[in-house]
Specification:
Layout (H helix, E strand, L loop, with lengths): L8 H5 L15 H40 L7 E4 L10 E10 L5 E7 L4 E5 L3 E3 L5 H5 L1
Antiparallel strand pairs: 1-2, 1-5, 2-3, 3-4
Length: 137
């Protein structure tokens, strides 16, 4: 009788220990191929479920946090640019927040190194850490 092993995420990163491998001489080629295909499909399914469910849930949580804490005036933010990598996005300071008709902040007047721009709130990204007013005095 085999003991049941708890499945953990760590199990999917590593192959089974050699002691768990069945005797190869007792398995024919077709069974081995079938088992290999099954394991491959199983791993692919788990990966896709992990990406869609767990990572999607994390994203939803971060969106909830982001929506409950709007960007404030004088906060330093990264200005999203689809043509550049995130490490090359420009820094900007929020000069004014502009709410929409529903009261939610929709636009921000920001000051970059060279100009002042109006940008949608969802295109601005907070820097991690303390608020900019505490960092910049």
């Amino acid at each position: 009788m085999r003991t049941q092993v708890t499945i953990t995420p760590e199990k999917f990163h590593h192959e089974r220990p050699i002691s768990d491998v069945p005797d190869v001489y007792n398995i024919d080629k077709s069974e081995l191929n079938k088992r290999c295909k099954y394991i491959h499909r199983f791993r692919q399914t788990l990966r896709s479920q992990f990406r869609s469910q767990y990572l999607g849930q994390l994203r939803q949580q971060s969106i909830k946090i982001y929506n409950t804490q709007p960007i404030n005036v004088d906060e330093i933010v990264l200005l999203e640019d689809n043509n550049k990598r995130r490490s090359y996005w420009n820094l900007a300071r929020v000069l004014k927040v502009i709410p929409g008709q529903d009261g939610q902040i929709r636009l921000d007047l920001i000051k970059t190194e060279n100009s002042e721009l109006l940008r949608p709130e969802h295109r601005l990204h907070r820097l991690v850490g303390k608020s900019s007013s505490e960092n910049w005095g």
